Amino acid sequence: MEYYSPRITFFSFLLASLLISRSVSVDNNITYFLECLTSQFHFSDSINSVIYTPRNASSFSSIFLSSARNPFLVSTSGQRPLAIITPNNESEIQATIRCSKKHDTQIKVRSGGHDYEGLSYISQTPFVIVDMRNLRSISINTKENTAWIQTGTTLGELYYTIGKKTKTLAFQAGICPTVGVGGHFSGGGYGMMARKHGLAIDNIIDAIVINANGQILDRYSMGEDLFWAIRGGGGSSFGVVVAFKVKLINVPKIVTIFNVSRTLEQNVTQLVHKWQYIADKLDENLSLRVFIKSVKSPISYGKNRTIQASFTSLFLGRIEDLLPIMQEKFPELGLVERDCTETSWIESILFFAGFPNGSPLDVLLNRTTQINAYFKGKSDYVREPIPEHGLEGIWKFLNEEDENNGELQFSPYGGILSTISESETPFSHRS
């Protein structure tokens, strides 16, 4: 023991020295970075309300975790940011870019919505976060059917503002109201009206970007190459996108929604199999998604489980026009009038977001929905229909993994999506 003791003591001393050295290095980085920002900001008094650092543990953690939707990533993540900047204007973003370049610090940009994979708040190199949560103004022009939307806005805030302004205009994007506009638009923006009106990026007509040199650019000054890249190619790879100008779409005053569930005992395998052949070929006004999970069997006792598929739909029209389409193309589902509800587009947003019937519109303004479970989400594209025996294999897996609450979501493309060239935007998954 005496022989090994000096080695253990030396190793312990070395480890402690390394930890202290790293702590001092990180602290120095923060100090130099903050000194740079203070000199760059036009109003130094705004520093305290804009910049959060680990030195103020409580406020820093609150901001840092606000976009985290997966505790696993938080607990296992690598290096945390040197600072989080929540700018109130473009000049504060420019200052952050200049100081990051000066001190060789990576910038990660997030919209203040939610991030399942930690891409906006985890890194293995020194970095700062530019959190756009304070830049969330929305300006709607009903005469031109356009809107300027700052990228700190959530989809819920966007839909709420449109719904309060007009009953016949809308925007095509996702169903989750806590998603940030900046990340959602930069990645494509699939939603329930995509088969009729394309992705969110297909309706972007201008943008404001601050590039790596701190220049503020619009579509004309940035050029068509950069404008192409930020619509589906990951906007933060090319600069900080401050705002998007979008084309609003016309929607009927009355739309139809339904959610019909079937189980294995109700031929769900055959229904999902048939769905694969018709969902992308239906009337473009109709989007029919399927949500599949394992549930306790309603006709047996004990631990027996079954597969439930929920066929969830938005139709841009009335029930009387929807039913003939479904009876012709998908009679096996057995859709009838009592399964359907006529409503407005903005009320359909509440329905697809899972809010109880009769919920006030202002629930869309809530940005703080937190998921406390450890989970993993993944998307992929199925180009050939899965045969029935393949579906049965999936059902077996879901039933075995019921404790993990696994779920599959099938979303159809087709419609206008199939008519847009794969090279139109960086989002190439069109057909």
TrEMBL record:
Signal sequence bounds: 1-25
UniProt superkingdom: Eukaryota
Keyword hit for Oxidoreductase: yes
Pfam family, one: FAD_binding_4
Cofactor: FAD
Domain FAD-binding PCMH-type: 77-251
Keywords assigned: FAD, Flavoprotein, Oxidoreductase, Signal
Family to which this protein belongs: Belongs to the oxygen-dependent FAD-linked oxidoreductase family.
Name the record gives this protein: FAD-binding PCMH-type domain-containing protein
